[in-house]
Amino acid sequence: MADTDASRQHVIHGLYADHHGWLRARLGGKLGNAEQAADLTQDVFVRLMAQSLHSLQAIREPRAFLNRIANCVVIDHWRRIDIERAWAEALISAPPDVAPSAEHCAIVLETLYDICAMIDALPDKPRTAFILARIEGLGYAEIAKRLEISERMVTKYMAQAMLHCIALEEPAGARGA
């Protein structure tokens, strides 16, 4: 186990030493902000640390692999900005006597991030059906018509989406109990 951890750290250190500067410059060009690029570059390497030794050793094109992770990190970053912007707009349009605390705002934002992550983790068709039903408020018949599928498939996709969300919400220790 210790050898595996040391090997993983060695591979990650090598990737960091060889590609950190390149990745930071690449993200800087995408974002137009050196500080954000530095933060997101670190996020890429944090995600890399979650990879198994086998996965790390299987990397044949390190820059392509890092770029793929970086693209996901940038998308998550932009998504968080969109969520924060939408929350700020909701706060601005709220009556003046409804002023949530900073703690409440942080909890709401974190919850919104979690919900978005759950929805984004769904396969395409169940995600689309879920969004149409729960966010746009469409009935199953209208969803079926829009997606050119049967209502039975809409029901199946909705069940799949709900089970997915429940599984993600369930604490890890409760899963086999």
TrEMBL record:
**InterPro entries to which the protein is assigned, alphabetical:** RNA_pol_sigma-70-like (IPR039425), RNA_pol_sigma-70_dom (IPR014284), RNA_pol_sigma70_r2 (IPR007627), RNA_pol_sigma70_r4_t2 (IPR013249), RNA_pol_sigma_r2 (IPR013325), RNA_pol_sigma_r3/r4-like (IPR013324), WH-like_DNA-bd_sf (IPR036388)
Any keyword Transcription regulation?
yes
Cite the RNA polymerase sigma-70 region domain residue spans from the record: 15-80
Keywords noted in UniProt? Sigma factor, Transcription, Transcription regulation
What GO terms describe the biological role, i.e. biological process, of this protein?
Answer: DNA-templated transcription initiation
Tell me if Transcription regulation is a UniProt keyword of this record.
yes
Which superkingdom is the protein from?
A: Bacteria
GO MF term set: DNA binding; sigma factor activity
What does the sequence similarity comment in the record state about its family? Belongs to the sigma-70 factor family. ECF subfamily.
Instruction: Output this protein's name.
Output: Sigma-70 family RNA polymerase sigma factor
What organism does this protein naturally occur in? Answer: Pseudothauera nasutitermitis
